[in-house]
Design brief:
Layout (H helix, E strand, L loop, with lengths): L6 E7 L12 E7 L8 E9 L3 H5 L20 E8 L9 E4 L6 E4 L5 E2 L17 H14 L6 E5 L6 H10 L3 E6 L2 H9 L5 E4 L5 H8 L4 E5 L4 H8 L2 E9 L18 H10 L3 E4 L2 H5 L3 H13 L7 E5 L4 H9 L6 E5 L4
Parallel strand pairs: 8-9, 8-11, 9-10, 11-12, 12-13, 14-15
Antiparallel strand pairs: 1-2, 3-4, 3-6, 3-15, 4-5, 5-7
Bound molecules: NADPH dihydro-nicotinamide-adenine-dinucleotide phosphate.
């Protein structure tokens, strides 16, 4: 099932997960490749992005976006090539970034997609990572909400992932002292040796809270929250007055069936927010900062192509492997931005 030239393979939501997703929650099917009508394009997926938010879409509850319905194609960002065009603005062979989901082929009317141009064409999957949605998230979440100043201590969790790895590197460019929190010694070593963080703490170490305290002798000025749970509890004890906490994600509870007890519950949290005059702000990058995409792309594009920002991709071959790979992402098995290579160009 390497790639398909004759049918459209796709993954649907078969049932809603209770806790961690399992393979039975996904249904595989093949259907004929659709034909574009006037004003439409037929796109073939080259790369599919897998991201933690997909877990939320599998639930019935409405969040910032509508939930998937049973039988829907699973949503996802894609890099695709135009294979047929009845649209005046697109030609066969154009490469676009869009949101066409877990399938080989999709029809589009040209809305909500962008043509890739310039050096990114030589590394197209970047449009789903450092130069795409995760990059936008890291850039504005840190700069606009975290507002880091030179010399301040910035802590970021999921530190070697798509978002966290960029947050820490941008904070270093801004002159901050950066501490990552990641799962396991290999990821921590990478954060320091390759990404250039000052320290990295393993959240699987029983002594994590004490190690974080030792790594942050001046307390924490900015905490970029990606995970929640016990990591957040450890951070909360160390925040300085006036700390800023961009709440980007809470992956440790995405598979939870009930909320954990403990200080990350709202009452203790509110007490600390008040006494430390913290600024805690949630954000959805595409909704809050999508209109400033060019500002991000100019700055990040320059850093990436000048080699000032390093990125790592965790690429799995084959659309057939998407469900297992998403399950692994939610367990921390990925190391870098998770991409499914669906087809060769
Ligand atoms: P990552 O590439 O960082 O992958 C997820 C990582 O989360 C895993 O590799 C694992 O890293 C870590 N993780 C998983 N479970 C736990 C746990 N129980 N405790 C601690 N860490 C855990 O994903 P992204 O960079 O794409 O996303 C990071 C966060 O940002 C997510 O919460 C996501 O939902 C959020 N996000 C929010 C956006 C917004 O607009 N607000 C946009 C994009 C992402 P490790 O092995 O190091 O623990």
């Amino acid at each position: 099932m390497a790639q398909s030239n004759t049918v459209n393979r796709r993954w649907l939501l078969a049932s809603r997960p209770h806790g961690a997703p399992v393979l039975d929650n996904f249904k595989y099917e093949t259907v004929p490749i659709p034909e574009p009508a006037d004003g439409e394009l037929l796109l073939r997926t080259i790369y599919l992005s897998l991201d933690p938010y997909m877990r939320g879409r599998m639930n019935a509850a409405e969040s910032y976006a509508a939930p998937l319905q049973i039988g829907d194609v699973i949503v996802g960002g894609t890099v695709s090539v135009v294979v047929k065009s009845n649209h005046p603005n697109y030609a066969v062979g154009d490469t676009v970034v869009g949101y066409l989901g877990w399938q080989d082929y999709a029809i589009s009317n040209g809305k909500f997609m962008e043509k890739l141009k310039g050096p990114i064409l030589n590394h197209q999957s970047l449009a789903l990572g450092a130069l795409g949605m995760p990059g936008l998230t890291a850039y504005f979440g840190l700069i606009d909400i975290g507002n880091p100043k030179p010399g301040e201590t910035v802590v970021v969790s999921a530190a070697t992932g798509a978002v966290g790895s960029l947050v820490g590197q941008i904070a270093k460019i801004k002159g901050c002292y950066v501490v990552g929190i990641a799962g396991g010694p290999e990821k921590c070593r990478y954060a320091v040796e390759t990404l250039g963080f000052d320290k990295c703490i393993d959240h699987k170490d029983d002594n994590m809270a004490q190690l974080l305290k030792e790594a942050c002798p001046k307390g924490i000025d900015v905490y970029f929250e990606n995970v929640g749970g016990k990591v957040f509890n450890a951070v909360l004890d160390l925040v300085n007055t006036g700390a800023r906490i961009p709440i980007c994600g809470l992956i440790s509870v995405y598979n939870a069936t009930s909320y954990p007890v403990g200080p990350d519950r709202i009452s203790a949290y509110n007490g600390k927010i008040l006494s430390k005059r913290m600024r805690v702000q949630g954000f959805i990058s595409t909704m809050d900062y999508g209109h400033r995409y060019k500002e991000f792309a100019d700055a990040m594009g320059q850093w990436v192509f000048e080699g000032k920002i390093t990125y790592r991709e965790d690429v799995t071959d084959g659309l057939e492997n998407a469900p297992q790979t998403l399950i692994g992402l939610l367990e921390g098995k990925n190391f870098g931005k998770v991409i499914i290579k669906v087809a060769d160009k």
